[in-house]
Amino acid sequence: MGKYFGTDGFRGEANIALTAEHAFQVGRFLGWYYGQEKKAQIAIGKDTRRSSYMFEYALAAGLTASGADAFLLHVTTTPSVSYVVRTEDFDCGIMISASHNPFYDNGIKIISGTGQKIEAAVEEQIEKYLDGEYQKLPLATGADIGRTVDFAAGRNRYIGYLMSVPAHAFKNVKVGLDCSNGSASAIAKSVFDALRAKTYVIHNTPDGTNINTNCGSTHIEVMQQFVTEHGLDVGFAYDGDADRCIAVDHMGNVVDGDKILYICGKYLKEQGKLANNTIVTTVMSNLGLYKALDREGISYEKTAVGDKYVCENMMANGHSLGGEQSGHIIFSRHAATGDGILTSLMLMEALMEKKAVLKDLADEVKIYPQILENVRVSDKKAAREHPRVQQAVAAAAEALGEDGRILVRESGTEPLVRVMVEASTQELCRKYVDQVVQVMREEGLTAE
Question: What mean pLDDT is reported for the chain?
């Protein structure tokens, strides 16, 4: 993790931690970096935040000043940028989004030519340029100056691709969609309508300031209520840039990323399409998922938190399914990154093929009680590695044994240490989380 780039790009409050000048400089570097031997072509997408327009034009200015052509996808999803870059032979892509963060934050995600998140080595070079530690970059002149191109057609091709993925129509299935007033607002309904679902949509009227506000995958209680009140068969909630999805069954129960991995993994195995009979998870997946996979004879691997690491593992080992509890799910046969809308389509495909309701499939996984507490600290590394904190964690792990676990990790995007405990009861979870957090407070490690 670098000075500016975390696990999910360069993110911060717009015009405070992340400014238009930063965006211009990132564009300048990328235009030069990919254009050293040819004219670079770089695609840009954005979510619905007010500041996304500012960053879009700043990035485009930097790219064209370095001689690159900037192709504007306008409001679209992160996975659509990945798809377009991968299939249209772009040098790289840029997504302007802070994902599930509040509207006043924003971010710059850089996507490689393979559709995956950019290599850390390139991010390091960008950071050096931002800090004035890099060579002075030449400005393009004359006919070498780049241009901007309206490329809404690229987004439309992505929509067409999504429609082609399911083998079944969703005729007469009542589906709820929470678009989080974000990127999915421009795409999700048209896809489900085309597949003949009875589509009920909420939070698809973005105004620049309402993205993720009491809606979407981080406020799943809204979709739970919507599904039960309207008698829907299933509901799907996306985050701001639509690279994650959380589902709700017809009874209003939440089906998170762990249960989605189980349902889709079991289905793909039955279809002979689960490569290596393996699912890639992160260390944050619930113990209940692993016990269910053991029962079904499905292998699994664990990575650090972040769909970037899940994707790296999948590509390196040829696995076809992986993801996170938060709803970032990667189907490598169809995409190179997490894709919320694709995830909902794949889950629907499993339901239609098996002629099942979501609740019955999800209930096969018995989720262990879990408490995750985000502790604001002044120094993440110092807090996590403090001897007394490590002693408290070790003591909790020994007490929990095979019927639970504790995990303490640093946030990749915020000044937080996350303390997570899973156990047989909520009371045990609370007990061991409190013990670790109390040690942090006693040692003056918190910033509360």
Answer: 95
What is the rounded CA–CA span in Å between residue 159 and residue 37? Answer: 33
Q: How confident is the model at residue 98 (pLDDT cuts 50, 70, 90)?
A: very high
At 42, give phi and psi (nearest 5°): -130, 130
β-bridge partners, 282: 303
Mean pLDDT, rounded, for 213-222: 97
DSSP output for 162-179: HHHS-SS--TT-EEEEE-
Cα distance between residue 440 and residue 444, in whole Å: 6
Single-letter amino acid, residue 446: T
pLDDT of res. 402: 84
Question: Known catalytic residue: 66?
Answer: no
Query: How far is 79 from 187, CA to CA, in rounded Å?
Result: 12
Which sign, positive or negative, has the C-alpha torsion 350, 355, 359, 363?
Answer: negative
Look up residue 258 and give its two tokens: 């762990």
Catalytic residue among 99, 112, 185, 411: 99
Q: What is the largest CA-CA distance in the chain?
A: 70
Residue 284: its pLDDT value, please? 86
Instruction: For the full predicted model, state whether its pTM sits above 0.85.
Output: yes
